[in-house]
Design goal:
Structural class of chain B: mainly beta
Number of strands of chain A: 11
Distance between the termini of chain B: 41 Å
Shape of chain A: globular
Radius of gyration of chain B: 14 Å
Shape of chain B: globular
Helix content of chain B: under 10%
Oligomer: heterodimer
Strand content of chain B: over 45%
Order of helices and strands of chain A: EEEEEEEEEEE
Strand content of chain A: over 45%
Chain lengths: 113, 113
């Protein structure tokens, strides 16, 4: 089954404790992206990757890192999480950048206390 | 960069009535406009999209119209049903280096039985 998976689905952590949210897709997609969703703000892009070893900042990259060592995986790293990073995070992949449909993962609900 | 405004933020309609959600964009070079539906607790999924060389596109009960001159596009849902209740996001593709999508802030549609 074609899918995008994320882990963990839910995470509660404390300020400053490094964490990684994994994202994997099995569709051989070149383009992958991370978004955060906050009430009233829609989906805002954090980072995206055009292909292996090619990443770039989206609209809200501060406090986040990513890597793309393999085509299928695109982890999101929070080196020192802060409460303002409490959010719902979605990973997405597509065949290429727009106008291809983006397939979203199930989401990761992160709470930083 | 691109800015997308979406209205209204909430919309309630009676079952069987029509619903219209409107979005405006700022980048006159934008050329791709998808709409995503997000049911409660689920991931966003593409429901319809339109490209700038087309003025209207229909798929059963949903349609999207585009006015390039005014830089706005709209989602129309006819004969609404309870399962149409969800958050709807519009998006626009600007002409940045990776042509990523910019999303609107979302519309919570509630279809009342």
């Amino acid at each position: 089954e074609a899918q995008v998976t994320q882990n963990p689905r839910y995470l509660i952590t404390v300020t400053g404790k490094k964490l990684t949210v994994t994202c994997s897709q099995n569709m051989n997609h070149e383009y992958m992206s991370w978004y955060r969703q906050d009430p009233g703000l829609g989906l805002r892009q954090i980072y995206y990757s055009m292909n292996v070893e090619v990443t770039d900042k989206g609209d809200v990259p501060e406090g986040y890192k990513v890597s793309r060592k393999e085509k299928r995986n695109f982890p999101l790293i929070l080196e020192s999480p802060s409460p303002n990073q409490t959010s719902l995070y979605f990973c997405a992949s597509s065949l290429g950048s727009s106008p291809y449909e983006q397939y979203f993962g199930p989401g990761t609900r992160l709470t930083v206390t | 960069g691109e800015n997308v405004e979406q209205h209204p933020s909430t919309l309630s309609v009676q079952e069987g009535d029509s619903a219209v959600i409107k979005c405006t964009y700022s980048d006159s070079a934008s050329n791709y406009f998808p709409w995503y539906k997000q049911e409660l607790g689920k991931r966003p999924q593409l429901i319809i999209d339109i490209r700038s060389n087309v003025g209207e596109k229909k798929d059963q009960r949903i349609a999207v119209t585009l006015n390039k001159t005014a830089k706005h596009f709209s989602l129309h849902i006819t004969e609404t049903q309870p399962e149409d209740s969800a958050v709807y996001f519009c998006a626009s593709r600007g002409l940045g280096s990776a042509r990523q999508l910019t999303f609107g802030s979302g519309t919570q549609l509630t279809v009342l039985p």
